Amino acid sequence: MYQVKTYNAIAPAGLNTFTADYTLNQSEHPDAYLIRSVNLHTETLPSSLKVIVRAGAGVNNIPIDQATANGTAVFNTPGSNANAVKELIIGLLIMASRNLIAATTYSAQHTEADISQRTEHDKTQFNGIELTGKTLAVIGLGHVGALVANAALSLGMNVIGYDPYLSADAAWNIAKQVQRAATLPDAVKQADFVTVHVPKNADTLHLINKDALAAMPTGVQLFNYSRLGIVDNTAVMNALATGQVAHYYTDFGEPQLANQSAVTVTPHIGGSTIEAEINGATQAARTIMTYLETGNVHAAINLPDLNVPFNAAYRFTVIHENVPNMVSQITAKLAAANLNITTMANAAKHQIAYTIIDVDDLQQPQQADLIAELSKIPAVSRVRLLKRGSVE
């Protein structure tokens, strides 16, 4: 029986995805965490913990280094809230082009008897533009960016995309009418609107900075529904003061953005829909089950991809440092136990490597001894033994 500990409110549809081999919140020694926004940086991860999955995109609330040292795989649920973010961006584009925030604020403040005549006199100050024929620059063409780009095309917009890390698989999701820019300045130089959809890492911190803003046309409208820090908010405030940026929309508030007429801050609601919560929870549960039952890895944060059909009777999985001679040390232990390897695969991601070894003939008395021997190898952080068709 696998033990799963949940944090935050997880959609019941996701919890109901678990099979009868899983129990929820009934052990102090969980095999898995299923989380949303809880901050794990202040916690000590238990030695039993094999996997953490966040039902959402960002993993800044997870201590990745501590998890890796603990032999704990970390996953998120990319794409589970992509449609929710896309729809919000499209809604904001319409609001921005038609000055809806200013217009509704005006109406709320003027309710006197002669409102009809006054409205006819004043409404020209809210004249907007139509999105058809306008240019949208989409920075980042992953799950969200691709959906935004395609939706904007449907509205009749010209769309220019920029993503130097675009994978071949992701490219299939983008309409051929989306123009590709070779550089960030090329992507934004003719844009009426710029929207940012990239993951937060060392390469994207302050991606939209003073220089990037200067490359945009005067009066551009900017959207950050990615992560705090990807847009340099100080640079944006300066650009707003000069008129370089007409309006800034973001899901991530900071004190310097408060009470600014040209800034609209939403309370981190980009992925906050009932459907997105269900998608994230369901995807998270499936990820936990796949990893615990097969050891296969797809799109982990701290482990390499490794997907091996589980056809043998038993499977060893080993998380270890990516250093020379590790595989030979692992196989030597199995050879000493007179085991025949039917399948073996190894992959590395930065400083961490992951090895899967399948065997058919493994006697019960050997199992604990082999796990102990493999765990003694320097640089090994976790060893698991899986039996096909059953739980640990």
UniProtKB/TrEMBL annotation:
Q: What is its EC number?
A: 1.1.1.399, 1.1.1.95
Which chain regions cross the lipid bilayer? none
The ACT domain, residue ranges: 315-388
Concerning Pfam families, the annotation shows: 2-Hacid_dh, 2-Hacid_dh_C
Catalytic activity, reaction form: (R)-2-hydroxyglutarate + NAD(+) = 2-oxoglutarate + NADH + H(+); (2R)-3-phosphoglycerate + NAD(+) = 3-phosphooxypyruvate + NADH + H(+)
Q: Which domain of life is it from?
A: Bacteria
Q: Please name the pathway.
A: Amino-acid biosynthesis; L-serine biosynthesis; L-serine from 3-phospho-D-glycerate: step 1/3
Q: Which UniProt keywords apply?
A: NAD, Oxidoreductase
GO terms for molecular function, please? NAD binding; phosphoglycerate dehydrogenase activity
Query: What gene does the UniProt entry assign to this protein?
Result: serA
Q: What does this protein do?
A: Catalyzes the reversible oxidation of 3-phospho-D-glycerate to 3-phosphonooxypyruvate, the first step of the phosphorylated L-serine biosynthesis pathway. Also catalyzes the reversible oxidation of 2-hydroxyglutarate to 2-oxoglutarate.
Q: Does the keyword Thylakoid apply?
A: no
Q: Which InterPro entries match?
A: ACT-like_dom_sf, ACT_dom, D-isomer_2_OHA_DH_cat_dom, D-isomer_DH_CS, D-isomer_DH_CS1, D-isomer_DH_NAD-bd, NAD(P)-bd_dom_sf
The family classification in the record reads:
Belongs to the D-isomer specific 2-hydroxyacid dehydrogenase family.
The entry's protein name is D-3-phosphoglycerate dehydrogenase
